[in-house]
Amino acid sequence: MSLHGKVALVTGGAQGIGRAVVEHLLENGAKVALVDLNQSVGEECKSDLDGQFGEDNCIFIQCDVTDAGKLRDAFQSTVEKFGRLDIVINNAGINNEKNWEKTIEVNLTSVIQGTYLALEHMSKEYEKEGGVIINVSSMAAFLHSPHQPVYTATKHGVIGFSRAIADASEQGNYGVRINTLCPAFVDTQLLRTVEHEETMGKFVKYKDEFKQRMDKYGILKPSLIAEGMLRMITDESLNGAVMKITCSKVLIRTFILLKSSADTSNS
Question: Which regions in the chain score pLDDT beneath 70?
Answer without folding.
Answer: 248-267
